[in-house]
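Wed. Picked up where I left off yesterday with 1-acyl-sn-glycerol-3-phosphate acyltransferase. The coffee machine is broken again, so keeping this brief.
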Amino acid sequence: MIAWRFARVTVHLFAGLLTCALVFPWTSAATHERLIRRWSRKLLQIVKVNSGFRDLSGGAVAQRSLIVANHVSWLDIFVMNSVHPCHFVAKSDIRGWPLIGWLCEKTGTIFIARGKQREVRKIYEGLVHQIQAGDRVAFFPEGTTAPQGTLLPFHANLFEAAIQAQVPIQPFAVRYLDAQGVLHPAADFIGDMTFVESMAVILKAGGLQAELVRMPAISTDGAHRRDIAQLARKAVAQGLGLPEEVVAAEAKPA
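Structure written out below (tokens, as returned):
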């Protein structure tokens, strides 16, 4: 059964590759978004992850914004793309993943190498132009994945792109639950776990419920990137339902 679902995932990945290679060059951005949304929903269906969406933003969503979210798993990208297709900023390691890496690149993922400040600056400048052009851009400010029930400090560097582009920050919270509404450990993608190992754990678990929560937008007018990063982290923590004392403790430097 697991082998059959692995095979279905592989076929679906190849279908996505063909779409990127043969359809994307000849179609509009709106069509790309529609196809990415449909493909992402199908992938979640194959791996038995049900996706739900809650809007706690309390008003209209800004037409242009910089989207941020906590980071649990490689699933996060597809959960978010199933609702709001985005150009993600992701660590360069993902580019080397079999099939998924190429697919992410062709769907607009922006790869960044850790510790290379010059590359960060170049990507930051590109983000400003993309946001101003109306592209939906998202990144994970924790910089890596974290076990569910925790929220790492947010790195502030890329928040500067929203300030320069004069757009708000749009926080999202993502978590994965079991049938009883408890955080499901199968979603955790941490340590030395490989993509294939994570996929196997998720397929064996079956029936994960992904919950994506949109929180109120945060204005960047006259603000400093560190302050915005802290406000965004508090908003995401609220969306995850994390106690304030847990969030405060995890924000302290090691």
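Quick read: The chain is about 45% helix and 15% strand.
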